[in-house]
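Reposting from the mailing list since nobody answered there.

I have sequence plus structure tokens for a pair of proteins and want to know whether others read the tokens the same way I do. The first protein:
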Amino acid sequence: MKIDLYLTPVPFAKAAVEGKAVVIIDVLRSSTSICAALQAGAKGVIPTPGPGEAGEMWTKIGSDMAVLAGERHGVKIENFQLGNSPTEFTEKTVGGKFVIMTTTNGTAQFAKTYTACPVISGALTNVSLVAERIAREDKDVIIACCGREGHFSIEDTICGGMLVHLLQERHGKKIEQNDASSLALLLYQTNKEIIKETIAESEHGRYLASIGFAEDVAIASAVDSMAVLPILRDGRLVVETD
């Protein structure tokens, strides 16, 4: 199994994804919130690159069947029903509805993946399920860390490294990896006992705490806390049940 991990969206934009498995990771916060929405009973999460596209999709689906969720620079977008805090996605707010989501870092990356299969939204909250699914697929993998505004982020890289670790150690996969994957694995191995503390002290973690979302950082750092595997089907992230 060959693993190419990309530390930021810049090299991922140039990557050949056709026929490969792709995992999109945005720990703080869209990958975590996608898990939360599906766990709360959302019919699916539709990732969109921007507020305009999200609004058009909302009009198309209908306000009775969908809610708008999104943020820019951590703050809820004006006139959207929800932001990007995993605490907002409850049965009351999203149960039985589609969530049309646009975030600063994560959601735009899915537009690159339509020739890949499977395409999975990965977070620390569901990392073991992601590893299990990738191991079962047994094909070359791209791990795309969304980072923060185009730059490297510790939390996404640790998550990518943990995924590589699980594929090797738990699932016994013989892996050929690029240098970024080796770096991510090392970062995970040196921080595996202090993941929550490391993410809380990360640049993005400190920023979110400063604007009132410290709880979100703690939720996003809780390994395997959400038993949800979001798979992209026809432009929608849905729970894989088979």
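The second protein, same order (residues first, tokens after):
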Amino acid sequence: MGWLALLLVGLAGWLIWTGRLQRMTAKDGMALGAALVGAVLAAKGKPVVGAPLLIGAALFFAGQGKLRGKRARPAPKAPRRDDVAQARALLGLSPDADPDAIRAAHRRLIASVHPDKGGTEALAAQINAARDLLLADRPEG
């Protein structure tokens, strides 16, 4: 029975270490439950019933890993010109503002509207998003 406890601790450690515990789906939970039931049955002397559950759960998780690697990630969307124009207007910047000017305008505004200074979280988030958008919109070079 000691090896079962070691197996469960190892499985829990692996789930935490890989971050799977935070994003576990219902199917993942059912496969994990099947693995636990299979381990208990195998430990109680019923490997004919427990082994298929363990093997099935292992194959499920192995297949999940392969599927995750093959999922296509969507390409990041290019910012729309009107979004960039609104961000410039919010920060009070001209179209030729360089990254230093963007950061300076952001610092000046965020100091007055930050929630710690009596401002709102929503306005601070808009100003942060405007800075991020304008910095990301800069041409490379």
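Reply #1 (J.P.):
I read it the same way you do. Helices lie at 2-18, 26-43, 47-70, 81-91, 99-113, 121-137.
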